[in-house]
């Protein structure tokens, strides 16, 4: 029977471990703390913020919510960011993206302190990810995919993994993380020829192409493990993944559902990255 | 008939174009300049240095050779590096690696000015390469592979490319550069299962595994384009690639010879990167 790789047990296990870590730091009079910086009142940002706060509350990570006007100047934005960069009581900083258009994201990304950059925004963290530096922070969604594969003990070493999509928030980082686990990694995308055939060679298929139910039965190798990163809303307002659920059910050995899969692990990963930042900043 | 993708015509064409660029800058009273920093007297470094100086002389790029004692302290090494970082007359800096063991390469890499880092040493340049930032500097060898493929008008978009090897000096950067050209890119390595079969699916095969004549006839798809990055010295002192020449001759449509292939393009690529650095530093 096809197995569902649900996110909740993964998030629960991570949360349990994070709670222990938080306690360890609190005993040393250090309170792991995350600053969230949000410009304006975008519904997506606010929903993610609520989910982060809920998760962090449940594990004992303190959250500082810094809300600035949507029309804030870049200099004023830097003042807010710099204050948290320089605050030794803040271990992690997440800036909600995309930023309002007048703020130059390609400049702002260089302003966040790399050591507090728990969402992998600064290019130096991308560089560390590429070089395999263990102090790297990768974005939370690719890390969530890896946590799910690890939790369910999916063998990666030597296996063929296919990443569908090459964005900086999912495709490229997850490809590097799979490579670091000794998978043989292929990155495919909209320009790939014979995409269904290429995909169907993969033991592990990570779909992050952002197209609702794009992956059909002919894309999936029988017995493959499928991680679906897509979050698409259909015309009836229902959430759909990048993978047709019936296809995964039919062909895969196991797959992450949408909703209830990858997306439900990201806030736990974020809290875990705050603890990693805290540990790196308080090394003896 | 199997075609040889020789490096010399590529290096010659690059050199011609660089000479024009140098002239353009000289007319503006700017002399494109590269600093080479070498610690000690390693034969490999000195051979590479001679080749760089010869190429740069031929295209009009000025070279400053900075030779420091092999036992130099990290602080003194930084003083030398900082002087060239801060010298507006120096556009590019190459530090010969590996550095002597007592110098911490993982710290030194952060000290080179990213804008002058023409050999892609600083992690921020790795990050820019990953994000696709056009101001990135990639290491010279992967860039040489790309220049050869471009010169001989090899179609990359939509094609399957296999990179054998995942080092930071060749494998990972060349994979990203191929991906940026819309190839479907697979990175394979020593842990890959059924490596010959995986390799033989590739329209473009880049061998950078550092094992003499590792790629045999069963690794090569009939009609593939093969780029051989290997430089291995056999027991008779002859240079051998990572690909068995007879296998490439037998199966490939075209391949880069060793010697006379990728290796003969790297110094021209380095000179080209100095001109890129010069242009970025003198933007109007």
Report on this model:
Chain A is of the alpha/beta class. Chain A folds into two domains: 28-113, Leucine Dehydrogenase, chain A, domain 1 (Rossmann fold, 3-Layer(aba) Sandwich), CATH 3.40.50.10860; 140-264, 3-Layer(aba) Sandwich (Rossmann fold). Helix content of chain A is 40%, strand content 15%. In chain A, strands 1-11-8-7-5-6 form a six-stranded parallel beta sheet. A three-stranded parallel beta sheet of chain A has the order 3-2-4, sandwiched between helices. The model of chain A has no long low-confidence stretch (mean pLDDT 97). The A-B interface holds A 106, 122-133, 157-160, 166, 168, 172, 175-176, 179, 182, 184-189, 191-193, 198, 201 and B 106, 122-133, 157-160, 166, 168, 172, 175-176, 179, 182, 184-189, 191-193, 198, 201. β6 (184-188) of chain A pairs antiparallel with β6 (184-188) of chain B.
Summarize the SSE layout with pairings.
The structure is a homodimer of 284-residue chains.
Chain A: E1 3-4, H1 7-27, E2 33-39, H2 43-59, E3 62-68, H3 74-85, E4 92-95, H4 105-108, H5 123-131, H6 140-151, E5 160-164, H7 171-180, E6 184-188, H8 195-199, E7 204-207, E8 225-228, E9 232-233, E10 239-240, H9 245-251, E11 254-255, H10 266-281
Parallel strand pairs in A: 1-11, 2-3, 2-4, 5-6, 5-7, 7-8, 8-11
Antiparallel strand pairs in A: 9-10
Helix pairs in contact in A: 1-10, 2-10, 6-7, 6-10
């Amino acid at each position: 029977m096809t197995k569902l790789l649900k996110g909740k047990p993964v998030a629960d296990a991570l949360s349990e471990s994070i709670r222990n870590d938080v306690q360890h730091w609190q005993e040393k009079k250090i309170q792991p703390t995350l600053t969230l910086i949000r410009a304006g009142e975008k519904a997506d940002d606010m929903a993610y913020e609520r989910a982060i706060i809920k998760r962090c509350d449940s594990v004992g990570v303190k959250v500082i919510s810094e809300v600035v006007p949507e029309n804030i100047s870049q200099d004023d934005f830097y003042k807010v960011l710099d204050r948290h960069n320089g605050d030794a009581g803040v271990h992690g900083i997440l800036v909600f993206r995309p930023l309002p258009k007048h703020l130059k994201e390609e400049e702002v990304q260089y302003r966040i302190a790399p050591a507090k950059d728990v969402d992998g925004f600064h290019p130096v963290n991308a560089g560390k990810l590429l070089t395999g530096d263990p102090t790297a922070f990768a974005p939370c969604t690719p890390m969530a995919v890896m946590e799910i594969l690890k939790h369910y003990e999916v063998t990666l070493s030597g296996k063929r993994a296919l990443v569908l999509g090459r964005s900086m928030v999912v495709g490229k980082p997850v490809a590097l993380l799979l490579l670091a686990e000794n998978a043989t990694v292929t990155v495919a995308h909209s320009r790939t020829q014979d995409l269904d055939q290429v995909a169907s060679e993969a033991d592990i298929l990570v779909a992050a192409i952002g197209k609702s139910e794009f992956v059909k039965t002919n894309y999936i190798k029988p017995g493959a493990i499928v991680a679906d990163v897509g979050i698409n809303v259909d015309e009836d307002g229902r959430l759909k993944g990048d993978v047709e659920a019936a296809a995964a059910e039919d062909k895969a050995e196991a797959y992450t559902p949408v909703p209830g899969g990858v997306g439900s692990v990201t806030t736990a990963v974020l809290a875990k990255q705050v603890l990693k930042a805290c540990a790196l900043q308080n090394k003896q």
